[in-house]
TrEMBL record:
Residues 105-268 form the Aminotransferase-like plant mobile domain. It comes from the Eukaryota. The gene is LOC101491079. Residues 1-40 are annotated as: Disordered. GO terms for biological process: meristem maintenance. This is Protein MAIN-LIKE 1-like. The lineage of its organism: Eukaryota, Viridiplantae, Streptophyta, Embryophyta, Tracheophyta.
Length: 279
């Protein structure tokens, strides 16, 4: 009887093993059935592939090269305005001095688009014929000469038009009336780059150097590491970097924030209906 019981137990264990393998086979069959031609056959990793530009390319639809957003000409105009020593001091203290001459007035849209078509937001990497590659924190810090150390930037969740106007008044030196008019005309918590340039010139003339430094730095990051698809504006949330006492300016990890912004824009650019690329 004992031997019979053991035989039954062993048989039951074998049956369990068979059932598990069948389940795995069913999952694999399902992945094969829901895969994409010349794309992933196992879709548990690249879950958004149906929206990827590579999918429509395989179906014969070419969206063309992306329009790559560059603010080099805007930044070049800004650099023509003299930078007083007190303002230059704060630019150096923030560790962003290397961004000033590092602008692009034009970019190879075809080359960049080719790489974006290989980017997948699920893995934050380029899927190339020889394997995967990505952009690392060290790459950003080394190429742009910005700090990878410090606090990560947390964007404020309550940055509406009223708060954006108040921030421009308190930290950028704009009058409350003109700050409210700016955000009201934009109908969002954003500032026009031209408005920042005009404000900066006025602040220099009145020797308001700390406000001028904040205005210059906000314009600088908007034209370089945080260039987005608005073309002519910058989100007010980035002024949070400069809310604090300027003497604590090295607290932030500029490289990590830049890398996240770049990843987000590459992921957006890989979606098939995207026509422009920021970052």
């Amino acid at each position: 009887m004992e031997q019979a019981a053991n035989d039954i137990h062993d048989a039951s264990g074998d049956a369990d093993d068979v059932d598990d393998s069948n389940d795995d086979a069913d999952i694999d069959d399902q992945d094969q059935q829901t895969g994409f031609p010349r794309g992933p056959t196992v879709t548990r990793v690249l879950t958004q592939y149906e929206h990827h530009v590579a999918q429509i390319l395989w179906e014969g639809e070419d969206r063309g090269s992306l329009k790559v957003i560059t603010h080099g000409l805007k930044l070049k105009k800004f650099t023509e305005v003299p930078v007083p020593d007190p303002v230059e001091h704060w630019i150096r203290e923030f560790g962003l001095m290397h961004l000033s001459p590092g602008y692009l007035t034009m970019a190879d849209a075809g080359l960049i688009s080719a790489f974006v078509e290989r980017w997948h937001r699920e893995t934050n990497s380029f899927h190339l014929p020889f394997g995967e590659m990505t952009i690392t924190l060290d790459d950003v810090a080394t190429l742009l000469h910005i700090s990878p150390h410090g606090k990560f930037f947390d964007a404020p969740v309550n940055m509406n038009t009223n708060n954006a106007a108040r921030a421009a008044h308190e930290y950028l030196g704009a009058t409350l009336e003109e700050a409210c008019a700016e955000t009201s005309n934009n109908k969002c918590a954003q500032y026009r780059l031209q408005w920042l340039r005009d404000l900066y010139s006025r602040l220099i003339q009145t020797n308001q150097f700390e406000c001028a430094a904040r205005t210059y730095l906000l314009h600088l990051v908007a034209c370089t590491i945080f260039a987005d698809k608005t073309h002519t504006r910058v989100e007010a949330k980035y002024i949070t970097f400069f809310f604090i006492d300027l003497h604590r300016c090295r607290d932030y990890s500029w490289a990590s924030t830049t890398l996240v912004f770049l990843y987000d824009n590459l992921g957006d650019g890989a979606v098939h209906d995207t026509r422009q690329l920021g970052g």
